[in-house]
Amino acid sequence: MQYEEERRAREAIEQLKYRYWRACDAKDPDGFRSCFVATGGVLDFGPLGRTDPDTMVGIFRQIALATAADGGPRILDMHHGFMPSITIESGGPSSPPNRATGTWTLQFRQIDRDKGTETLSTGEYSDVYVIEDDRWVMAECLFTPGWSITRTLDEATVTYPEVSVVPGAATEGADS
Asked: Is 13 exposed, middle or buried (0-12, 13-18, 19+ CB in 10 A)?
């Protein structure tokens, strides 16, 4: 496999994963869904269960778009993924790569405004990426939780911007 093809594939996969996390934090279910294969696919997010992308979008909508008692967003998330290890598989002697695997470390922070808690946690993603419609998407996204700490916000003040979900806003301009 040519070095340049492998480099381009790796960069596209990294951008895919970053778009995925931006869609999560932006509360963008359509952007979230666009990061996965059109049919099939396996997602396992530990406590949220093992399912397919469409079912997970429904779970995502329930959690991410939940409204707090004051009418604002109940859940505020921050996903920071780093330390990728991506292996590109050759598509054949004269074919570009069309499958890859990867692992990522996640640092995740969540504010639950109704419960008055902040959770900081870590974990590891193990993904399978494929080419579909000339772009990289995830066929498998498996998350293994690491350590976690939840504490009360006590007298903390939580501020947040006005949230208006714009489909695709987190992934606008994406070109993997």
From this structure: buried
Exposure class string for 126-164: b at 16+ Cβ within 10 A, else e: ebbbbbeeeebbbbbbbbeeeeeeeeeeeeeeeeeeeee
Torsions phi, psi for 124 (to 5 deg): -125, 130
Per residue in 46-100, pLDDT (tens digit) is 888 899 999 999 999 999 999 999 999 999 999 999 999 999 998 777 788 899 9
Place of tokens 């579909």: 132
> What is the arithmetic mean of pLDDT over 163-172?
58
At 21, list the tokens.
């996390």
pTM, full prediction: 0.89
Sign of the torsion angle spanned by Cα atoms 20, 21, 23, 27: positive
CB 136 within 8 A of CB 176: yes
DSSP state for residue 163 in the 8-state scheme: P
Of 149, 151, 125, nearest in space to 138 by CA: 125
Element (H, E) at 82: strand 75-89
**Spatial distance between the Cα atoms of 6 and 29, rounded to a whole number of angstroms:** 30
